[in-house]
Specification:
Radius of gyration: 25 Å
Strand content: 5-15%
Largest sheet: 7 strands, mixed
Number of domains: 2
Structural class: alpha/beta
Order of helices and strands: HHHEEHHEHHEHHEHHEEEEHEHE
Number of strands: 11
Length: 367
């Protein structure tokens, strides 16, 4: 009798292992098979004499990325988090906040918000040294240098984080860096946190379901940069803001719930911002992965060169319409120092979002 029970348990266990795979192969054409949570799927490894030690870990990663019903299971788990528990999502990249806010928890965002990842004095001195050397290199070519730091969404709308994510430090890493640079160097630093806080309640300046600021937030950031460069743009309340529901949805995708947030949750808030002088702005090239290139009839003849991440996209309209020519290469894999010589700009802006301040530890022009 005991042997029959043991055999029955073994058969059940084998079926649990094999049935999902069999059902998947029979019906996979009816299900989503692509990764939809901003993940690069691991390819099947091949066992060779060079990778035999690492092959088990490589195969485990491959299996985890290709397990049957993976996408559906991630969606289900994330939906349980959203509807019942409001916890961090299954992929460990998203925090579910109050009032339908989603927040990014990968990279350094949570530590930035809590204030638990401050730079050491040696790191601050190294960043200041790199930026000062870069400034001198550009000044030798007659080029202005400005550092622009875009705040994380959590820094602006932190009150909508869950209480378990509380601030532990009196100062954040970005404010620490801004203060250090202003006290110890003559680097021109633009950090538009107070500008954003001034309007954060009147307008929704960041997308609820995405990591980035929307066009209203981008306009406020861009206006702060223009002020540093000697150009006065209209305050946002002087403009026309028409609401629409566009959103980047990158955080919803990380949870594999983009369709759910599009169809079941309140529409996100974006604004079409008009009312400032576009100076006949013309887009020469718009490719987020490489460069944003513009020409306008602006009265300011200076050429703007802005090394950027994705946050600059929603600043592009107000910035590019203020200068005759604008060239904005992406820092990650596209920008090279040769482009400075080729473009011959009057102004060089380095734009970095708060969560990627580590980039400044290695940024150095003139090497």
């Amino acid at each position: 009798m005991k042997k029959k029970i043991a055999a029955a348990w073994l058969i059940c266990f084998a079926l649990l292992l094999l049935l999902p795979r069999a059902i998947w192969w029979a019906a996979k054409d009816r299900f989503e098979t692509e990764a939809t949570e901003n993940t690069v799927i691991t390819r099947a490894p091949r066992l060779t004499s060079q990778n035999y030690l690492s092959f088990p870990a490589e195969f485990e990663a491959y299996y985890n990325d290709n397990v049957p019903f993976r996408s559906q299971l991630i969606s289900f788990n994330s939906l349980v988090d959203v509807r019942l528990f409001r916890e961090r999502s299954v992929n460990d990249k998203v925090v579910i906040g109050d009032e339908n806010w989603l927040f990014y928890s990968a990279e350094s965002d949570i530590d930035d918000y809590k204030g638990t990842n401050l730079f050491s004095q040696q790191q601050l001195a190294a960043i200041a040294g790199n930026l000062t050397a870069s400034q001198a290199y550009l000044a030798g070519q007659g080029i202005e240098f400005v550092l622009f730091l875009a705040p994380n969404k959590e820094t602006v709308y932190g009150e909508d984080m869950l209480p378990s994510y509380y601030k532990q430090g009196a100062i954040s890493r970005v404010q620490q860096l801004v203060d250090y640079l202003r006290e110890n160097t003559d680097i021109r630093v633009v950090y538009p946190l107070e500008d954003l806080k001034q309007y954060k309640d009147a307008y929704s300046l960041y997308w609820h379901y995405d990591t980035h600021w929307n066009l209203a937030g981008g306009y406020i950031g861009g206006r702060a940069l223009l002020k540093e460069l000697g150009i006065e743009a209209p305050a946002i309340e002087e403009l026309t803001l028409e609401e629409d529901d566009y959103s980047g949805y990158d955080l919803a995708r990380m949870m594999n719930l983009e369709a759910y947030y599009r169809e079941k949750m309140p529409k996100d808030i974006n604004y079409i911002v008009t009312g400032y002088n576009g100076n006949n702005l013309q887009a020469v090239l718009v490719d987020d992965a490489t460069a944003l290139v513009y020409h306008s009839d602006a009265p300011d003849p200076r050429k703007l060169f802005l090394v950027r991440d994705s946050f600059a996209g929603n600043m592009a309209g107000i910035l590019a319409s203020s200068f005759r020519d604008t060239y904005m290469p992406h820092w990650n894999g596209f920008f090279t120092q040769d482009q400075i010589r080729e473009q011959d700009p009057d102004i060089f802006v380095l734009e970095v979002v708060e969560r990627r301040l580590d980039y400044l530890e290695t940024f150095l022009l003139g090497e």
